[in-house]
Design goal:
Blueprint lengths: L1 H11 L1 H8 L12 H14 L1 E2 L9 E6 L2 H11 L3 E2 L2 E8 L8 E6 L4 H11 L5 E4 L11 E6 L2 E6 L1 H6 L3 E2 L1 H6 L4
Parallel strand pairs: 2-4, 2-5, 5-6, 6-7
Antiparallel strand pairs: 1-9, 3-4, 7-8
Helix pairs in contact: 3-4
């Protein structure tokens, strides 16, 4: 059992493991599923991004479109956490729903056209957009998750972040794959 766990840890890679370690109370290796891993990355994206100031009494809403399992994992990942003085909350929305309260939105399980329409509605708003859809950053999204050699990796569209008036941490950018 111990060898299996060590092989699994070697397979997820140092950057992924570092991302998990950044989360207080990170789950044990045997509990890490793809949705839990993506939720950890999403939380860390929120943690290592600077947004324009918002009223402190408003909760910091992370939205999920199309992936209930990641939504459930994200609820657990942010439970009782505060970011920049704001309580974190998770909202599940449909592709056509207004996303005006979302500060970060994870989009999965939708068509490229639906993703593009959602990105267009959020254009120039301070919303960090993340997805696992092929070509997402080329559509104007901020970050895209993908698996490479069995590891969860991500690429970043810095121009999209700048257009949304978001500042991504150099720590986060140093882990991104440049494509």
């Amino acid at each position: 059992m111990c060898r299996i766990r060590h092989r699994w840890l070697a397979r997820i890679g140092p950057a992924t493991l570092a991302g998990l370690l950044l989360i207080p109370g990170a789950v044990s290796a045997q509990d890490v599923t793809e949705p839990v891993l993506k939720a950890a990355f999403i939380y860390n994206f929120a943690k290592f991004t600077e947004w324009p100031a918002a009223p402190a009494q408003e909760p910091f809403i992370l939205c999920v479109v199309g992936d209930a399992a990641v939504g459930d994992a994200l609820v657990e990942a942010v439970k009782a956490r505060v970011l920049a003085g704001q309580n974190l909350g998770v909202s599940r929305i449909a592709p056509g729903d207004p996303a005006l309260k979302c500060r970060l939105i994870y989009i999965s399980g939708v068509t490229a056209q639906q993703a593009e329409q959602l990105i267009a509605r959020l254009r120039d708003l301070p919303v960090l957009t993340i997805s696992d859809l092929e070509g997402f950053t080329e559509l104007g999204g901020t970050a895209r998750f993908f698996f490479e050699n069995g590891r969860l990796r991500f690429s970043v569209n810095r121009a999209s972040a700048e257009r949304a008036h978001l500042r991504l941490s150099s720590k986060l950018l140093s882990l991104a794959i440049r494509k």
